[in-house]
Amino acid sequence: xxxxxxxxxxxxLLSFNTHRVSPGxxxxxxxxxxxxxxxxxxxxxxxxxxxxxxxxxxxxxxxxGGLVFLNDSKRTTLVSNPIPxxxxxxxxxxxxxxxxxxxTFTADSMMxxxxxxxxxxxxxxxxxxxxxxVDIDNFRNNTAxxxxxxxxxxxDTHVGALMPHCRLPRWHPAFTDIVAAGNSKAVxxxxxxxxxxxxQEETIAFGDGGNDIEMLQWAGIGIxxxxxxxxxKRHADLVTTDVDHEGIEHAIKQIL
Length: 256
Description:
Blueprint: E1 4-7, H1 23-34, E2 38-42, E3 59-62, E4 67-70, E5 77-80, H2 85-98, E6 102-105, E7 110-113, H3 117-126, E8 146-149, H4 156-162, E9 166-167, E10 176-180, H5 185-196, E11 203-207, H6 213-218, E12 221-224, H7 230-233, E13 238-239, H8 247-255
Parallel strand pairs: 1-2, 1-11, 2-3, 11-12, 12-13
Antiparallel strand pairs: 3-4, 4-5, 6-7, 6-8, 8-10, 9-10
Helix pairs in contact: 1-8
């Protein structure tokens, strides 16, 4: 019996084409809630970048599991694991040296530095407001739960070596997230399920990006969207139709 469902945002709940939640997805949530299934966000985004979504969630996995909290009046924290200061500063030095566009996410805010054409294109694709632009040294004064490194994939190995206490879950060719080692959406799922007394085999998860792989593997049923890369689909138990063709609704009909 399914008791919990976890959802990525970009390319899963929100279409990259319309930037909206489809009517079929809303119907799927109604069906889940009618069956007593709890629903949760599981995203690489920080809370300040999560747009209004016309369905309800009982908890949020944000910044790839770096900060996980309940959707209650106190925003009760279940997981808090920021990037170590030494690794953060190593990235600041590297990004400054190579003039790389970058962003940092704290628990409640975000900042950007060295904005370039790729950074602006990313903002337009994901339809978010560019955060305040500051000198990159201001990043040192804040606790970072996630960094955004706008750089080609061939730099990932080098940057990973500079930041030994971090991991780089890339889900987009133009940039990668940087989070503390050990953080993942699966860690957040485990914390939420332990809080609610839900067994791993009683969960489903929907995702489409590289940072969703651990989530799909951890879930009792991991469902890849039809628009996911083949590298993601290989780790799923089920592949549904794409986000623009009611992938979530099709899968929920099969499962329930």
